[in-house]
Amino acid sequence: MFNKNIKLLLASITLLYSIYQFYENYIGNGIFLILISLFFILIYFKNEIIFLAFLKLRKQDFLGTERLLSKIYNPEKALVKKQQGYYNYLNGIIYSQKNLTQAEKYFKKAIQLGMSMNHDLAMAKMSLAGILMQKRRKREAQQLLTEAKKLDKHNMLNEQIKMIQQQMKRI
Predict the structure, then answer these.
(1) Which are the contacts of 131, defined by CB distance < 8 A and separation ≥ 6?
(2) What is d(CA 80, CA 84) in angstroms, rounded to the nearest whole number?
(3) Taking the CB of the first residue and of the last residue of the chain, which one, N or C, has fewer CB atoms within 10 A?
(4) HEC readout, 36-92
């Protein structure tokens, strides 16, 4: 909703006002305003629209996810680098249903920007490997699958990786 600079400005203003409230002996107001400033700092690092888009995606609502992501204007300026990675990752998932070339572009950019969680990065690499496999680029797909396997420390994607490898053997 807000630009990242506006979020920091709101956090600093509420923090300064909470210090003023402490000075005026309104301790309860000061504590509450510190909590509000912490909320602004939290949404600086975790974008609320991306969070809502993940919730929509969990319900398999691709149109709703796409609508939410379209509300982020100019993601290079509005989002932190890791958030840009998740933005491109979500767009890659949406476009993998429509246009594989566009989805490949989004997944590559998401991998380049990086993500906070290793299993999310592994999922992006595995999805990109599936797209490359469909485009008959077996060597690149195999390389991405081995990288995804290394990133998947808890073996959450083990079955999907094996399935893609079996499909690759048929090519």
Answers:
(1) 96, 100, 103, 104, 107
(2) 6
(3) C
(4) HHHHHHHHHHCCHHHHHHHHHHHCCCHHHHHHHHHCCCCHHHHCCHHHHHHHHHHHH
pLDDT at 158 exceeding the cut of 80: no
Distance CA 93, CA 23 (A): 51
- Determine the Cα–Cα distance for residues 75 and 69; give it in Å rounded to an integer: 9
Q: Catalogue all structural domains in the chain, each as residue range(s) with its CATH number.
A: 1-45 (no CATH), 48-170 (1.25.40.10)
Banded pLDDT at 106 (limits 50, 70, 90)? very high
Give the chain's length. 171
Is 143:115 a contact under the CB 8 Å cutoff? no
Average of per-residue pLDDT across 127-133: 87
Q: What's the CA dihedral at 154, 156, 161, 166 to 10 degrees?
A: 110
Rounded to whole angstroms, the Cα distance separating 126 from 160 reads: 8
Alpha-carbon span 88 to 101, nearest angstrom? 14
